[in-house]
């Protein structure tokens, strides 16, 4: 230990008196409140690496689509997946202890956690998005990791969240330092393999990077990508903090269902928007009258399901490899119906939050496609898939495309860059225009609103967040309201990221959807 514990705590655990929760996407808060959390996360990440015998544990500093004044941190397992759930409470407890208990208690606890039983030197892989608060917060994390653990830290500086997941996993696999270029080389390699089998034919693509870290990373990709001539990047000013996620980006486009700032409307282009840390993507296009059409996470997962099902059939692998789609309650009812009725694909529903979908996809299918409607998602290919396609006697072009697709889609986490490349490859092979893609099914009109409540913990749910358990009686009232509306569906859940309750409503028509949304919103206000 280089510095006495006491002075370390005095210096770095300066944000005190707050309560923190390691939620669906790690810790997230106003960046001014996070010093103590970062110091605690340094400890948690090092302990996790020690338990795993010194394997690399990732740490990503980001607040995704939140405003630029917020920040956050999440811990990544050596295989690139999210921190296992049982450690989330360890992280929460430690952050709250450091932020709320007297110095003596903190010293005792930290002393106990670092009491040197383990001779294993922890290894951390660290990255951050473009937020101004990033470097300072990183220094708080580095302080505990180096002073208390002498951890080996590889700091990649600015990264997208999926890059951090990917590089953590690559470090574990190779057991050596991995250059950031390995990320680009991997996905560009897969793209080139597909393009060699099937010439690429696509419209111009405009990529809105939410003025976040996706901007410079897309620029780096474009310097090496054969498709670059047809691809342009907008909202890539990641050095102007006030612009981050402001009037642009995946969250803005999905929630407001309109073009982001900075777009030149053109009916012949395909557009997509990333979020601030580039782990979410949604697409959209304009019809000949410049009417806006969104192609969100549901449209992306159904596109992949259509394409993979078709290839599996052509390769006569459909009875050998199972494929399914994982959604949340926010998936549009039309997409679920389309998957089940038109494609005959099994669909599972999980709670909101990428980790829930990810586990369901990995545990249930050889090819598990998962997307939240908001654009978070990927396609997971199992070992059985890889063994089957590698050993298959008939290495047809269709089989090879399946194999390369499994490489083009990030296997650690949803990735805006990799998802975008995969969608473009699929559209090119199918020779589908954006409107042809959109025609597969029509979304039911839907609305997502939020109600600010004094205590969101009063709203508890069951059935993958589709039904309320408490407040008592509210679900019955919602059921009555839904029953009166054609193709009506509505549910209420407490947000995991802010002090609010979210109300989702969908129905056969715009006016019925508005009606249902306002009735359920009023019911929530009545019961809170
Ligand atoms: C987090 C989740 C995202 C989810 C959102 C829901 C991750 C990496 N991110 O951002 O998947 O859609 O929370 O927010 O899991 P809410 O609970 O406020 O509705
Ligand atoms: Zn994000």
TrEMBL record:
Catalytically driven reaction(s): N-acetyl-alpha-D-glucosamine 1-phosphate = N-acetyl-D-glucosamine 6-phosphate
SUPFAM superfamilies: Phosphoglucomutase, C-terminal domain (SSF55957), Phosphoglucomutase, first 3 domains (SSF53738)
InterPro entries in UniProt: A-D-PHexomutase_a/b/a-I (IPR005844), A-D-PHexomutase_a/b/a-I/II/III (IPR016055), A-D-PHexomutase_C (IPR005843), A-D-PHexomutase_C_sf (IPR036900), A-D-PHexomutase_CS (IPR016066), AMG1_II (IPR049023), AMG1_III (IPR049022), PAGM (IPR016657)
GO molecular function, one term: magnesium ion binding
Residues annotated for substrate binding in this entry: 372-374, 493-497, 502
Family: Belongs to the phosphohexose mutase family.
Function: Catalyzes the conversion of GlcNAc-6-P into GlcNAc-1-P during the synthesis of uridine diphosphate/UDP-GlcNAc, which is a biosynthetic precursor of chitin and also supplies the amino sugars for N-linked oligosaccharides of glycoproteins.
UniProt protein name: Phosphoacetylglucosamine mutase
Organism: Torulaspora delbrueckii
Gene name tied to this protein: TDEL0G04600
């Amino acid at each position: 230990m280089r510095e006495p514990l006491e002075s370390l705590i005095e210096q770095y655990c300066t944000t005190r008196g707050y309560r923190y929760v390691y939620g669906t996407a790690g810790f997230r808060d106003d960046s001014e409140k996070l010093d103590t959390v970062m110091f605690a996360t340094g400890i948690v990440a090092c302990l996790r690496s020690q338990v795993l015998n010194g394997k690399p544990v990732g740490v990503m500093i980001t607040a995704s689509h939140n405003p630029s004044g917020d920040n956050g941190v999440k811990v990544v397992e050596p295989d690139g997946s999210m921190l296992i759930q049982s450690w989330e409470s360890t992280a929460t407890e430690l952050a709250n202890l450091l932020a709320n208990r007297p110095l003596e208690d903190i010293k005792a606890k930290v002393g106990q956690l670092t009491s040197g039983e383990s001779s294993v030197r922890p290894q951390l892989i660290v990255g951050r998005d473009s937020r101004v608060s990033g470097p300072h917060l990183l220094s708080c994390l580095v302080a505990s990791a180096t002073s208390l653990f002498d951890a080996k830290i590889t700091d990649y500086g600015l990264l997208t969240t999926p890059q951090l997941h990917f590089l953590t996993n690559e470090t574990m696999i190779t057991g050596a330092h991995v250059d950031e270029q390995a990320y680009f080389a991997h996905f560009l390699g897969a793209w080139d393999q597909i393009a060699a089998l099937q010439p690429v034919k696509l419209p111009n693509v405009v990529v809105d990077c939410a003025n976040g870290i996706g901007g410079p990373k897309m620029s780096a990709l474009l310097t090496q990508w054969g498709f670059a001539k047809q691809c342009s990047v907008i909202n890539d000013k990641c050095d102007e903090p006030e612009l981050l996620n402001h009037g642009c980006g995946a969250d803005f486009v999905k929630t407001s269902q309109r073009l982001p700032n900075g777009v030149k409307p053109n009916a012949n282009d395909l557009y997509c928007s990333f979020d601030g840390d580039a782990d979410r993507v949604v697409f959209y296009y304009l019809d000949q009258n410049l009417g806006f059409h969104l192609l969100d996470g549901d449209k992306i997962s159904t596109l992949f399901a259509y394409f993979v099902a078709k290839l599996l059939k052509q390769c006569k692998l459909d009875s050998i490899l199972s494929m399914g789609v994982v959604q949340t309650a926010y998936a549009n009812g039309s997409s679920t119906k389309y998957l089940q009725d038109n494609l005959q694909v099994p669909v599972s529903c999980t709670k909101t939050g990428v980790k829930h979908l990810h586990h369901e996809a990995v545990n249930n299918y050889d090819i598990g496609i998962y997307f939240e409607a908001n654009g978070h998602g990927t396609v997971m290919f199992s070992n059985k898939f890889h063994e089957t396609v590698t050993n298959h006697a008939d290495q047809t072009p269709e089989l090879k495309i399946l194999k390369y697709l499994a490489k083009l889609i990030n296997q650690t986490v949803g990735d805006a860059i990799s998802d975008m490349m995969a969608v473009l490859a699929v559209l090119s092979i199918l020779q589908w225009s954006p409107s042809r893609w959109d025609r597969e099914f029509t979304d039911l009109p839907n609305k997502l609103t939020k109600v600010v409540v004094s205590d969101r913990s009063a709203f508890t749910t069951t059935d993958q967040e589709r039904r309320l358990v408490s407040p008592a009686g509210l679900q019955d009232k919602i059921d009555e309201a839904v029953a009166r509306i054609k193709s009506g569906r509505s549910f209420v859940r407490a947000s995991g990221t802010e002090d609010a309750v979210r109300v989702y409503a969908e129905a056969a028509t715009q006016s019925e959807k508005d009606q249902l949304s306002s009735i359920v919103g009023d019911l929530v206000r009545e019961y809170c």
